[in-house]
Design goal:
about 190 residues; about 60% helix; mainly alpha
């Protein structure tokens, strides 16, 4: 009787160890990819191309693509939105500049770029694997879905873009801002000999 309970527990230990090892390896490569945003996005574009080719050749799974589009639209809104919306929250602290004379405040996203990339990439991988199951291939007239998604995109992005123009913030950047180095003024007498 003791052997029966022991076998189940001992069988789950290697499985848990394997899941732990895979999770740590995934986290390791995810952490290594953090500073390489250009290569991350190129990899995501390759995944998008593979997904689009899969949907094109299968000629189906439009409802999966529609759901993926809605999810990406939601992520895009989070990416383009500031962490603190000056229209919604009245605060005593610093706000986004509305005039040229206002002091520059950095744009802090509600959804950081790395999480935005990771969520989009994970969504395309999940959608790609969903195309291998016929239960997700619901027959729909795809032009209606495309039209509805475009209307939804225009309606949501119009408010977002007008908000960006009003508060003069640009959410896209290629990293830390670099300034040209000023040459230190040297005296004409040369280096000091302390």
């Amino acid at each position: 009787m003791e052997g029966v309970g022991g076998d189940g527990a001992s069988a789950s230990v290697p499985l848990n160890q394997w899941k732990n090892d895979v999770g740590r390896m995934y986290q390791f490569y995810l952490d290594k990819s953090t500073p390489h945003s250009t290569y991350r996005w190129i990899g995501t574009l390759v995944l998008v191309a593979i997904y689009v080719l899969r949907v094109y050749y299968v000629q189906g799974f439009y409802i999966v693509s529609y759901g993926l589009g809605i999810y990406i639209l939601n992520l895009l809104i989070g990416f383009l939105s500031p962490l603190v919306d000056p229209e919604m929250e009245v605060s005593d602290g610093p706000m986004l500049p509305t005039k040229g004379s206002d002091e520059f405040k950095p744009f802090i996203r509600r959804l950081p770029e790395f999480k935005f990339w990771h969520s989009i990439t994970r969504a395309f991988v999940i959608a790609f694997f969903m195309t291998f199951f016929s239960m997700f291939d619901v027959p729909v007239f795809w032009p209606i879905l495309l039209f509805y998604w475009v209307v939804l995109f225009v309606m949501t992005m119009r408010r977002q873009i007008s908000h960006m123009i009003k508060y003069k913030y640009i959410p896209f950047s290629t990293g830390k801002q670099k300034y040209g180095s000023k040459k230190a003024s040297t005296s004409s007498s040369g280096p000091r000999g302390d």
